[in-house]
Structures are given as C-alpha cells and as structure tokens.
Amino acid sequence: MKKILLSFLLLFVTASLAFSQNSVITGKVTDQKDGSALPGVTVTVKGTPGIGTQTDVNGKYSLSVPAGKVLVFKFIGYKAVELAANSSVVDATLETDSKQLTEVVVVGYGTQKRQNITGSVASIAAKEIENTPVTTLEQAIQGKAAGVVIQSNNGKLGQGIKISVRGTSSISAGTQPLIVLDGIILNQGDISSTNAATNPLADINFNDFESVEILKDASASAIYGARASNGVILLTSKKGKAGKAKLNFSSQFGSSKPSRHRQFLNSEQYLQIERRAGVGASLQDFNNGFYDTYQDALDDNAAFVESRLLRYSAGVADVGAANVDWEKQAFQDAPQAIYDLNLSGGNDKTTYLISGQYSDQKGILVGNRFKKYSGRVNLSTKPFSRVEVGMNLNFTNTVNNRISDDNQFSTPMQIVALSPITPIIDPRTGLLSGSLPGSASNYPVYYNPLLSVANSYYNTTVFRTIGNVYGSWEIVKHLTLRSEFGLDQTNQNEDSYYGRLTFRNTGTPNGAGQNTNNGIIHYTVNNYINYKNVFNTDHSLDVTAGTSYEYNHFVGNDIQGQQFPSDAYKQIASAAVKSGGSSSQSEYAFVSYFSRANYAYKGKYLLSASARTDASSRFGKNSRYGFFPAASVGWILSEESFLKNSTFISNLKLKAGYGLTGNAEVGNYPALGLFSGDAGYNGSAGQRFIQIANPNLKWETTGQFDVGVNFGFFNNRISGGFEYYRKNTRDLLLDVNIPGTLGLSIQTQNLGKLYNQGYELELSGDIFVGKFKWTSSFNGAFNKNVVTDIKKQVLGSNDLNRVIEGQPIGVFYGKEYAGVDPANGDAIYYLNTKDANGNFIRTTTNDYNAAQNVILGNPTPKYTAGWTNTFAYAGFDLSVTMQGSWGNKIYNGGGQYMSASASNGFDNQTVDQMAYWDKPGDITDVPEPRLFYGNGVNASSRYLSSGSYIRMKTVGLGYSIPKSLLAKIKLANARVFMNAYNLFLITKYKGWDPEVNADYQASNINLGVDFYSAPQPRTITFGVNIGL
Amino acid sequence: MKKFKSIYLTAFGTALLLTACNKQLDLKPFQSVGQDVAILTSTDVQITLVGAYNRLALSGTYGGGNFLQPDLMATQTIIDWQGTFQDLSQMVAQTITNDNGFVEGMWLSSYQAINQANNVIANLDKVDAASKASYEGQAKFIRGILYFNLAEMYGKSYNDGSPATNLAVPIVLTPTTVVDESSKVPRATVEAVYQQAITDLTDAQNLLPAGNTFYATKNAATAMLARIYLQKGDYANARDAANTVIASNRYSLVTPYTAEFPYPAQIHVDNTTEDIFAVQVTAQQGTNGLNTYYASPDDSGRGDIIVRDNFLAEFEPDDQRAAIYTEDSDGILRVGKFSNVYGNVRVVRLAEMYLIRAEANQRLGTAIGATPAADITTIRNRAGLGNVAAVTLADILKERRLELAFEGGFFLHDAKRLQQSVGALPYNSPKLVFPVPLREINANSALVQNEGY
Questions:
Q1: Whole-number average pLDDT of chain A
Q2: B-chain residues near A584 (CB < 8 A)
Q3: A574: which of A66, A569, A796, A908 fits an S-S bond (Cβ 3.0–4.6 Å)?
C-alpha cells in the first residue's frame, strides 16, 4: 500500500511538474504550393528528444510542448520548417524541396537513404519528366542523368531507342538496361514483325511515374545479378497519399515539324548532272571496248539519258518543266493532343491513385500516328496493423500507324530519290505520279512512297497489362516479409493492307494483306525478407534476402494473303490466295536467389554487400548457374568532427565499390544444336541444320569498379558528384564467325573481352534563391569503349561498322577516301599499306580493292552532357534542358545513292554533288559523274561526317495562377504552360539529324548509320494543368 | 540476437530455395529439333534430303545467283545494267571487291546445301533399303553440281595454267558436328574440286533412278557430267554423256521455243518435257533469283537488266528464239525467259545436250549419236529455222550462244573455256574470278586469297 501511495505521489508530482512547464500546442500543416493539408508530417521539439507527433489526415496535430521551445516540422520531400512555440496555435506551411524529394531512393528490392548509398544511382523525379510532349519515357529523360546515353533511331513514333548506361558492354548479346516497374521486371522484347524495332516502353504512360532510378554500378545493380551488366532502370509509380482527395487534370496541344530539312538538286541541276553522267559513262564504255567508237558510245548514252529524262518528266517534252522539292513531300503537319487525369487520396489505412491518359500524336512523316489510352489503379491497404497488401495495375492500348522501315522504297524518306523533274501529279492521268493505270512500273524512277499513304496501312495495336499484387507482413519488429506477383502481358496485333496502287512496291497485283498476332506473357514472383534495425544507436543494419522466379512465354502467329476482290476488302478473309502463314512459340525462365546487407556505423562509415545466384533456361546444363557478388564502402567525411561544423562543406562522401554482373540477353536457345523444319521444297516438307550446339555456353560477366565522391557546399546550395568507373567484360556472348564451309556462318560462344571506362560529373546549384529562383544542374560523362580480345577476328556485316581488337564496338573501318584525281575525275583512295617501318603509305589509288582498310572513326559519342536550368518568379516557371554529344561520326549509308555524283542511277542528288569533277585540272572531292559506273560510291570515308551536336532538348514555360484568384472558383491550383522539344539543333552533320541509326539494321555493332532515316521532331505544345 | 536472426534467415532462405525447381529451367524450343534427335529414322533422312534441295534452291546459288552473276560479268556489250545493288554493279564493272555480299552469299549458300547433302550421306545406314540408292544419289548429285559451280566461280578456269595447282574451294564431305581447328579446311585445287564433282555425279548416275518426278534423276547426273566434261575440254566424255541423255528418249524439245519458258498466269509447272533438271520455285518455297533481276516490274522483277538491240540483231530474221526477248509495258526490251515469278530455275535442258554432242563430235571428228549438222538442224528446226547440211565449230558455238543465252552463266563460262576475251579483259583475267569472301578469310586462317584481291 505504501508503495502504491508512493507511486501515486510520484506520478502526481511528475504530472504537476509537467503541468507547470508544458502547454498543449495545436495547429495545422499545409502545403505551400496549394494550401492542402499535409498528413503524416513529423512534429518534434528542437533540443528535446522524445517529444513528438505526426499530423493527422487533416494535417492537424496536437503536442504538449515545454515553454519557450522551437517546433520542427519535417516531411519527406519538403524543406524542414522551425517555428517558435510561442502561442497555443502554431500553423506551419511546408515548401517542397527538389533535393529532399530524392532523399529516399528506390533500390533493388527495397529503398535506401540517398546519403547511405555507396553505389552509383541516378535519380530523376517526376517533376522533371511530366508533360514532356514525347511518346516514350526515354525521350523524356534524355540528357538528365550522367552516363545514361539515349539515342532514337529516327523520328518515327514509338520506334526503337537505344539506352546505354556507361557504355556498351556486349557485342552480340543485349545492351539495354533491365527495366523494373514497381519491383516487376518488364518485358523489353521487341515483337515488331518488321526489321525495325518498336519500343515496348512506349506502351507506358510516364506521367504515372513518381521517380526513375538508374542503377549504374555493380554495387547498386548486382542484386539483379545476371540481368544487370547494362545497368538497371527502376521505375516507381505514383501512389496515393492519405488526405483529401486530389483531382488533377492536364491537357496539351501542339504540333511537330522535322528538326531540319536537307537540300536536293532542283530540275536544272538534275538535268545538268544526269546528262554529264551520260558523257562520263561513254568514255568508260568506250575504253572497256563496249563500243567501236567513242562517238557511238556518246550517242547511245545520250539517247539513253534523254529517254530516261523524258520518262521521268512524265513524258513532257520540256523535261525540266516541273521542279518539285520531293523532300518536303515526306513530311506532314503533325498535330498532337495529350490529356491526363488523375485522382488520388486515402486515409491512414488505405490509399489510392487512379489515373488515365489519352494521347494522339501524329508523326512528322506522312502516315505516321501514335495513339495511346492508358489507365492505372494503385491501391494499398493495411487490413491488420502489421500487414499491408496492395496492387498496382496498369492497362494500356496503343495504336501505332507505322510506316515502312528505312530500307523500303515505301518509307516516306526514300521519296528524296525521286527526280525533281517528276511532277507530283502525273499530267497524263491526273493522278499521283506512279499510279495505275499508266506507266507505273518504271515511272517515277522508284516507287512513289506517297502512294502508300492513301493505299496502304500498317497498324500495330497493343494491349498491355502490367500489374502486381503484393503483401508485406511485419513478422516481428524490424523483420518484414514481402511477396510480390507481377504480370506483364502484351497482346500485339499488326494489321496491314497494301492496295492495288502499291503494286510496284509489293509486286502483288491485286492487293496484299498481312495480319500478325504476337503475345508475351511475362511473370515474376518475388519473395524476400527485410531486417532493419539500429543497435546501440551506432550500428544500423539493413538486410534483405529472397528469391525470384521469372518466366516469359512468347506466342505468335501470322497470316498473309493476296488477290483481293477490290481495295474495299482489306482483311485476309477476302484474299483469294492465302500466301503465307506461320505460328511460333518461345520461352525462357530464370530462378534467382539474392541477398544484400547494408551496414552503417555512426552514420558515417558505410558498408554494403550483395550477392545473387541466377539460373537460366538459356544456357547449357554444364553452366547454368552464375554467381554475382558485389561490395562497396562509403565514408561520410562531413559527419566527422573535423568537418561537422564547417560552414563551407556541408556534405562530403567518398565511396568505392566492386562487383560482378552478368548478361544473359541472348536468344532463348543459343546453347543447343538445332534443326529447323522450315526447309520444304515444292510442297514437300524438309528440315535443315541451323545451329551448332555449345553445351558450355554461359553468362557474359562484367566486373565493375567504381569510385566516387559526393559533395555539397554552403548548406548544399552547391552540390554534386564525381565518379570514375571501369567495367571489364569477359566471356563475351559472341556470335563468332565460323568458316562458312561448316554450313553455318556463326556460333554463339563465350569468347572475348572488352572494357568501358569513364568519368561522370554532376553539379547543381541554387544560383538565386528568394523571389527570383534560378537553379542550374549539369551532368557530363566521358566513356571509352575498347574491345580487347576477340581472337583477332573482324566482325561486322554492313558497310563500315566493324568490331576490331583495340577499337570501340562498331568502329568505322574501311577505305579512306582521298577525293578525286584532278587528271581524270576518278575517285581515289589512300593506299594505306604499311612500309617497312609500319607507317602508312599515303599514295593514292583509283583501285578500291588496292586501298587497305583503316580505322575511320567512332560511331559512339565519347562525351555526353546535359544541362538543365530552371527559373521561377512570381508564378512563372521556366525549365530549359540542353543536351549534347561529341566525338562520334555518322556514316550516310544512303550516300552511295543520294550523294553519288549521279554515278549510280537516276536518284536525285544532294546539292553538294554539283561540285563534281568536270574537266582535267578540276580540284574537287566529288568524282566525275559516270552513269551506273559507281565512281566513288563504294563504302568509304567519303560518306562519314561528324555527328557531334548540341540541342535544346526541352523547354517548359509555365504560369501558375495565384491562389487568391483560384479560391474564388474553388480550384486548388491551375497552371498554363508551353512545352518545346528539340527547339533547335547545332551541328556540323551534313544529313538531316545527327541523332540517327537506320532502323532496319540497327544493332550493337551497326551504329551511327543514316539511311534515309527520319529526323527528330521539333515539337511545341501549349497546355493547362488544373487541380482541385 | 544477431545469431538468432541469421539462423532465421538461413532457414527461411532454404525454404524458399526448395520451392524453386530445376524443371522450370529445362525449356525446349518449339520450332526446332535437337541436332542429336533430328536424324534417327529413314524419314528423317528423307526430310533432310528435301532440306538439301531447299538450300540448293537458295537464290545465291542454284536458285539463280550462280547463273546470273557470271553472266553479269560477261554481257556488257549486249545488256544495259540498271541495277542499284552495288555488289552486282561491281560484277558488271568487273571490279568486284573481296567483301562483295553476293560473292559471300554464294559461298555460304553453297556450303549450307553441301552440309545438308553430307548429313544425308552420313546417315544412309538409317534409310530403308528401297530408298537408299536414290537418297545417296540425290545427295551426291546436289553436292556434285555445287562443287562444280564453286570451282567455276572461285577458281581459275580449268584451261588456265595448271588446274592441279590452281586453288578452287575447300572440299568438305562430312556433316558438321563440332567447331574446332579441323573446321579450318584449306582450298583444294581446281583439279581436285572438278574431280570431286565428277565422282559425286558419276556415283549419282549409277545410283539414281531414271524417273524421279522433279527430283534429281540418272539423266540429270549424266547431263551435268556432260557439261563438266565440256568445261574441262574432255570432249569424248562430254559427247558420250550428252549422247546417253539424248538416247534415253525421256526428253523432247518443246515447241515453240518460247513454250519451254512457261509464263502466263504465273502458274508453277514442275518440269517441261525438255527440262532434265530444274530447281523448283513455288509461291510457298524458293525464289527465282533470275526473275528478280531480269524480269520487268510487270512481272515482279526489279527490271535491272535491259537487252540491247544489238543482241537481237544476232538472230536470223525468222529465228523464233528472238521472240522470248519482248518489250515490257514501258517498251523496254527484257529477257523473257524468267518472267514467271513462280517459274523454275532451269539447271539443264535437252537442247544443251544436242549442242554439247554436236560440239564434241565436231571437235573429235566423230558422229556418235548423230552428226553435228543433224544436231544443229534439230536445234534450228525447233527455232523455226531451216536445216543445215554442214556446220563449222563457229556455227555450233553461235547456235549455242543464241539457244542458251542468259541460262547457265554460259556467257562467262564459255568465254573462259573458249579463251575468248570478255570486254577488255582476257579470258584468264583474275578479275573474272570471284575473290574468296573476306569473311571466310577472316574466319578461316587456312584460306589463301585469289590473285588481285
């Protein structure tokens, strides 16, 4: 009893003591941006640990605070605010902080505080990509992360895009980073049935993303083991937040134009050069003994040229009467409209986000259009205090009106080959030139791509569902189990019909149709546990371990038909001849075990280690399993006593890591010896040998070393980082050329080594703070790629791209053009044989075969950079991103036709060809025109030019209408904006656009080739964003 | 505490491990069959043989490329080349580069077909007794004609210097099972490759049945032997082989001449009565590689080749063979022999046998089977021309040129065996021999490049 009494007394005393010193303070915390309540804000008392609370759903809090203290309001993504607790009501307004926003970073199978990360992770926040007027995520993040190089093949919509994270690590296997959305590996396989790839990421609405994280080094990515050699891109979708429901609507409208045009010959120039080419050919014909006299040759060739000119002028005797700039005909007005609507909210147990997007973009090329309908539901709830379950579901329908690949006569850009003397409308028929009836088989000089616009279509319709359901259970304090099941399902239909007027292109007189269905089911099951705890205040530990199973199944079928009753019938059902059909399937699976431990001592000594074991169906039983460990260390110097109080240095962290990652992105059955049953003959079925077995085939392995420093000065007003890395890739999964006498030309082997080495610099600063705000952030990267060992082979099959030891992948290798022999107009080449001392002999030769192949340039930029400046003043905001790359060359694969000094047929020529050699003594680098003699048109450095460029990638200008005005019409926020994409381009490149790689042949090796490839679009849109 | 946790983790991890099953990793392809189980039965050998025909029919080789490409190198005075394929333009210009894609294509396609044939020959022990001789004969026929073509294209002419030392192509007679140093086979001599072709075709001649639908027959092998012996200058064997084919009476000349090239309606015809062997092209299988370049766009071709009027002037006024050269809808003179996109690529037909027998008899002063004049009369009569009482060698060669123009690559091959110049080049110019493809030189260190490349 005494005891009880004593306790009671004690309690009373304590309480009265508290009473005498504390007062209860209440208040509401709101968002400075729109005045909305902020739930979940941590409210603490400065200098008094142990007292604190969080705001409720309505942003309200109540806290008993000792008198005279200061309240601290903290919330992730917002700048902390300190307010004196000097009245009973203290309201706070928090302002978003772009730097704080990324404080917690998504990493593989978990999250981590940015300060504790010892690997290399680039983060891009939603704000930086939202509402960019482009089709796909990659275009929106171009230039925004150091060492992440993004390059479109051309300006067609929804087409293949190459992403390189710290260079290219493979010659024959995949080079694209792994893409993971909300923990689920996305299917990235291209299932386009043409040679030109489409981009599976175009199916996803990037306005749904909260953040994009790019894991660049082994320490960060090795948790993805055999999938991580090319880096990992982690996408995190937006989630609802507890609080009042928010509705947000935005829409924008605009249009695109080609970034640049290219000049071709007008009629007068064309007639001049073609006639001159006839003369040039005559001398060759005569010298070759094809005619008895030179005059015979001249007469015959002149007659031939004139007959052709008459033909191409639609039979108009005044052959130069028409003067058409066909290049302009390749393009169309390209309007676009994008609408986004999303609703989010929730309470302390359940949150939701529902979003939808409709976009309709026309491409700059005639006939190109991309429509997208996208919806998302993200739902999360806590049915029990220790359990959270939820789902993220995204469904999309895209419709891409595609155009032919760059190597087809029907692709709009090949229209430039048509003669300027050819009228658009044939005066003989009143129809588009090349239309039937009439002389359609050889007029104009090639098939007129405009015929395809009205008489054919090729529509790719994709239905894609990406979803996951997950549950997480806090088994005991600090220990959480998470299970995820994710599905990525793609159903793609490609429907095409080529009408009668496209006969010259298809070769089928009464219509041709094709219908292809391809589907992929891809699912992932992840189970992992996480243990997170702090021991004795100084030791913090975060351990994750689990398993993953991934399965992918492709099913495709295709049917083709010919002989349609009329062009009104476009489905194969109407085809009298079913000319082709096929079906196929393919699958792969991965089974993986992974673990990671992060340890920090006193918040300044950091250690991280991870390991993953992967097994894949793709490899032989002898070598199915791969083990991928990584470790890294970090030291936060700014937490040390000697720097802690520095007013100059606010953050300084050193870090280093090493690890192994793998690459398994090869075909699904490369290890097997195979026969294929596709070898019939006149109706009898047959089989043929297609692949030789390699039972020891295994992973390609990359060992990556990374060292870096992160720094911040003046309370992080200036911050940045610098990193050096070296990636050594060995056991390359290489398609090795084997002697053709084997009946095969390649075998996939683990052969060869290469490395990538480089530096990355990131700098950002708040240059002006206050009413006028200016922040600037720069990123730059240098990468050197060298193939060190492929057993002296020379790989590559296109004009100039090769893989050669000691050189970067795809290096341009061939004959060095030396211009024109002033004496006779022959194209000449440097001999480049070597003398006794190993020096190149620089004499020239007109014998293309005699000239030796030499290194001519690198197709991959050495330096890449991005620079973003944002300004804000009185409701106006402006964001400008410049992006550039340097040190690469581009090969114009179409040069042999379009810049051939009329030596290769009747293709129209680029204007520079008018500088052709005409008479002995002329000094020029354009050879004498010699019709069909191909004077100087063989692949050589003649068609290489610099690919360096700087472009104004994005500009966003907005005005937010003041809240005081909005309150009257009950809007939370409203912003009007203008977006510009590719506003201008600075380059010496001679072609259309230096961001190019001919789509029909683009590969790891075939790089930097322009082949009638469409330029990038220049887009300007205007829009509005409204929230309530 | 920590220890407990790690035990917990380990136990949990192990539990998860057990759920993963290795079975899920044993995934087999759907559209293809393992090399180890592809050829187990007689039927498997038969479908592999069909696969050999399929490869033989590739447009890079007997699907047309092997007849088109030599002719492009030797017809500059009678055609205008309008094509934009640089690699073919190089052939017309007689400046072929060692990385020429068509030169590489012919090499790769030929050896694909040879490997198929080798797969058949190596598995004959699995074949039913009734089919064994035929399968072996067909495989050897395919292999033999491929080696002959390779020797003609990649080696010096048989009559140029010493065929016993001049290099042609590697000889591979076993199917591919591994890739190792033994895969690097050096080039055999022209003599050895000719001999391989003759051996294969002689075996085929002995093994094959007389009739075998559109597949290779005894006469097909004999006819190809006649051609090879003629190319070698072995006139007696050439004459006897040609005579054997004619005397078999299984074939007859199609009248009129143009009907030998069935064309309208683009309907596939297996073989005419004159065809001894033809590579079958249908809508489903194969591409007529001659149609692609010779035929006008009216007939699904690229229309890259225009016949010059001076070639037509070589025909006598009443020669019905000139009628196969017709103007297309644009008034351009085309070779009309390949206007059917689903027409076969004729490899050898009866008329050639008459011409070989006539030439060989003429050279040897014999009259085995018939006199040269009688054979030439046979050829002329079918063309709507009158009899000849006597002929000279030049008459026979002229008849051959007009009869077989643009078939068989004879413009080049005949120029070589007859030691006639080709444009400004002598018959034995290195420029008239294909280079060994650069990719082969790079992949196989045992190979030596041809002169001039």
A1: 91
A2: 30-31
A3: A569
CA distance A585 to chain B (A): 6
Amino acid identity of residue A4, one-letter, is I
The mean pLDDT value for B305-317 works out to 94
The average pLDDT across A241-251 equals: 91
> Coil, strand or helix: which one is A375?
strand
Name which of B6, B30, B106, B142 to mutate to probe chain A: the one with the most chain A Cβ atoms within 10 A of its Cβ: B30
Give contacts of A743 with chain B, Cβ < 8 Å. 111-112, 114-116, 118, 175-176
Q: Over the stretch A131-160, which tens digit does the pLDDT of each residue have?
A: 888 889 999 999 999 999 999 999 999 888
Is B170 in contact with A741 (Cβ distance < 8 A)? yes
pLDDT bucket at A98, cuts 50 / 70 / 90 = low
Which domains are delineated in chain A? 2-96 (2.60.40.1120)
pLDDT bucket at B176, cuts 50 / 70 / 90: very high
- Please check whether residue B155 is in contact with residue B168, taking contact to mean a CB–CB distance below 8 angstroms: yes
Whether B442 has its CB under 8 Å from any CB of chain A: the answer is: yes
User: Between residues 161 and 200 of chain B, which touch chain A (CB distance below 8 Å)?
Assistant: 169-170, 172, 175-179, 183-185
Contact partners, residue A620, CB within 8 Å, separation at least 6: A671, A694, A695, A696, A697, A698
What sections of A29-132 are H helices per DSSP? 98-101, 126-129
Give the count of Cβ contacts less than 8 A between chain A and B. Answer: 274
CA angle A722, A725, A729 (to 5 degrees): 165
Share of chain A above pLDDT 90, in %: 74
Average pLDDT over residues B360-388: 97
Q: Do B330 and A311 touch (CB under 8 A)?
A: yes
Burial A745-784 (b: 16+ CB within 10 A, else e): bbbbbbbbebbbbbbbbbbbbbeeeeeeebbbbbbbbbbb
Residue type, A301: N
Domain boundaries, chain B: 39-217+417-453
Sequence letter at residue A123: S
Contact B285 A747 (CB under 8 A): no
> How would you label B202-222 residue by residue, b for 16+ Cβ within 10 Å and e otherwise?
bbbbebbeeebebbbbbbbbb
Model ipTM value: 0.93
Q: How far apart are CA A100 and CA B382, in angstroms?
A: 93
**Is the Cβ pair A905, B84 closer than 8 Å?**
yes
Fold of B39-217+417-453: 1.25.40
Instruction: Say yes or no: B387 contacts chain A, CB-CB below 8 A.
Output: no
Whether residue A676 and residue B84 make contact (CB cut-off 8 A), yes or no, is: no
Cβ-defined contact of B185 to A624 (cutoff 8 Å): no
| Strands (E) located in B171-329 | 275-279, 305-307, 325-327
- Please give the pLDDT value at position A439: 56
Q: Among B36, B111, B296, whose Cβ lies nearest the Cβ of A740?
A: B111
* Percentage of residues of chain B with pLDDT beyond 90: 85
| Shortest Cα distance, chain B CAs vs residue A462, angstroms | 24
Q: What is the pLDDT of residues A406-445, one digit of tens each?
A: 999 999 999 999 999 999 999 998 999 998 776 566 889 9
Q: Report the predicted TM-score, pTM, of the whole model to 2 decimal places.
A: 0.84
- Among A577, A741, A848, beta carbon nearest to B95: A848
Strands A700-713 and A944-946: unpaired
Give how far A94 is from chain B: nearest CA, Å: 40
What are the counts of helices (DSSP H) followed by strands (DSSP E) for chain B?
17, 7
In the prediction, which pLDDT does A66 show? 81
- Number of neighbours of residue A695 by Cβ within 10 angstroms: 12
- Measured CA to CA, the distance from residue A596 to residue A594 in angstroms comes to 7
Of A73-87, A637-651, B347-361, least confident by mean pLDDT is A73-87
